[in-house]
Amino acid sequence: MKKYCIIGHPIAHSLSPSIYNRYFQAMNIEASYEARDLDPASFDEEVLGIIRGYDGFNITIPFKDKILQYLDLDRGAAEIGAVNCVFDGKGYNTDWIGFIRSLQGIELIPPVMVIGAGGAARAIVYGLYRMGIHDLHLMNRTQSKAEELSQSYSKRFGMKIYVHPFSALERMIKRAGTLINATSVGLKGEHFNVTPETFSDVRVLFDVIYTKTPLQRLAVRQGIKVVMNGRSMLYHQAVENLRIWGILKEDHFHRIFEEVTS
Length: 262
Ligand code: NAP
Hints:
Blueprint: E1 2-8, H1 16-26, E2 31-37, H2 43-53, E3 56-59, E4 72-73, H3 75-80, E5 85-87, E6 90-92, H4 95-102, E7 112-115, H5 119-130, E8 135-139, H6 143-157, E9 160-164, H7 169-175, E10 178-181, E11 204-207, H8 214-221, E12 226-228, H9 231-245, H10 250-261
Parallel strand pairs: 1-2, 1-3, 4-6, 7-8, 7-10, 8-9, 10-11, 11-12
Antiparallel strand pairs: 3-5, 5-6
Helix pairs in contact: 1-10, 4-5, 4-9
This protein binds NADP nicotinamide-adenine-dinucleotide phosphate.
């Protein structure tokens, strides 16, 4: 019997156990996938046991960077500085892959503006870099985190990331061709403090949240042609996890994913 899990804190909200366990059942794979809520204070004591004890696992907030020192890293994980998937002692980042695959066939209209500077934003900005988009605008509630992301990616990848204060959110969205929300705003029904007209010139909206949010609803009402939520990113990162673990049958997984998440 194979064992998989996701570690995080908190972890109760994760859809991953339902998705993967249904997939294992449907595929007659003898395996289980559990959610493990780890106390951050005992992470260093427990992590080696987890690396040894599971056939593969995922990592979410707040451990994506804490685990780096315990693993060999693939290029994406090393360059982003965050791991969300582990197999055989090696750490991968499948978020950026999920992001770029979810955009297949979609043209991102410049200027590109990203809101957020947490784990999702780091993966998305890296994904933009790997797609050939090297110039973008960045804003985050805590501006110092945006500055840090900008400096680190400018130095390592030669990107030009212009950081603006969060107080300029409305003004900056008005100038954006493509707006990417990489924050958790909307997960609980929250909305950015901007007027509906702010979005009138935005052509593409990508919202990392995989449920319908006020931002997405507003974008549709404002006539933005391309409005995407994070569901497709979630799907493609999960496909990549299964591929890394050597247990992917994509047509079956697609059906299960639709059943569990719709
Ligand atoms: P994180 O590292 O904790 O970062 C959270 C981000 O949201 C930070 O930029 C934070 O700003 C911002 N934020 C939180 N509350 C805010 C508020 N009230 N106003 C303005 N900004 C706020 O989390 P993460 O890993 O980046 O995840 C962010 C979201 O992406 C989560 O909802 C997660 O579920 C989702 N996600 C989706 C996928 C997918 O496949 N679709 C993949 C990964 C993550 P500060 O820096 O100022 O705190």
